[in-house]
Amino acid sequence: MPNTDNNKNVAKKVPIKVGGSSRKQAQGSSQQGDNNSQARKGAIFLGAVVVVYIVYLVFTGQMATFIEALSGVNMNWVVGAALCYVFYFIFGVMAYAIAVYLDHDSPVGIRDLMSVEASGVFFGNLTPMMAGAVPSQIYRLTRTGLDVGEASATQFTRFIMFQLAVVLFAALMLIAKLSFFFEAYGNIVVLNLVVFGVHLAECIGLFVICLCPNLVMRFGNWAIELLSRRNLLKDRAHWDEMVNVQVMEFSDAFKRAAQDLPSMGLTLLVTMLQLASLYMIPWFVLNAFGVRGDFIECLAAGSMVQMVASAVPLPGGTGGAEGGFVMFYKNMFGPATSAGFLVWRIVTFFAPTIIAAPLLGLSTRNRTVSIYRRVQRIKRRLSRGGKGHSGHRGSSGGVKLSGKTVDEKVAKHE
Description:
Strand content: under 5%
Number of strands: 2
Number of domains: 2
Shape: globular
Order of helices and strands: HHHHHHHHHHHHHHHHEEH
């Protein structure tokens, strides 16, 4: 039956949400403008990096080797690498969809979530240390009808699960291939462990915020007061709100999500598959150059390259991406390392950034039917289709009235 009471409650709540969060909405729009400015600067910076890279190849005499290596690339494997990134994007959308599915009346649709994931790709790639990804994704979620608190909570929970998956995946790879790292790279593996430790500390810090908000608020207020006395803090009101309001909002959202452990576990699994789709791309690139590499070793090396690149405070992890790729894949690619890096970078960075731009404007047209209700409708249709219908009463038990069963009328009304 249609839930008219819920519809009335939603209709009553909308004006309150919009009115109560107008200042935050304005701040979000301003922050999005800052993200756009940073993205433009990042694009210019990366364009300059490409020019410098070409000049380097020319003056070091590697251009001939570079072109020769590219001429022998098997495009079928490159297409396979590109499909891996497509799955990376799909799994990212699925991870958001799981969170949205739990809210039976959420106005967020699949096209909205595609836009949110594209925002993370676009602004994350063009801002230092992917700093623009989370604010842009929160902004996109607010455009769907969520208030800033709800959007921030959804995004923060997703961010925590992503960071947990990054650390867990890297830990599994280090355990599985630690002897390989030491044999292949020697003491340089210590850098891997340091970078892994930094990411682990970040992950622990996020869980402390979620599980011990009062402790974080006390420490945060002490730090704000200390910095304010020394005139080292600009816009104290912003930091007061972040510590005393947003920390508790994030904590409450995470605790609510954690109550549904199966969904949290499913989100973690989907995110692990998302990362695997990204980390296996170098294996496809190796095969494109006719090199048969070990699949697990490529996954392990890919996780380390990504962690190193994300620690560099430049757009696209410039410097870390190049250094990490050469460090972990030079022995595999040999003379084709420069060409292999270019193909890998195109598939994982340049092409996704360009393709993500037109996806930023995607928006779900029908917001009156949530993802949860759409899934339930599909389940009912599949159930009726599997059981079949008899002349007067379907096997699902729906009583036939005027050519349609009661179940069908209810589904149509919803």
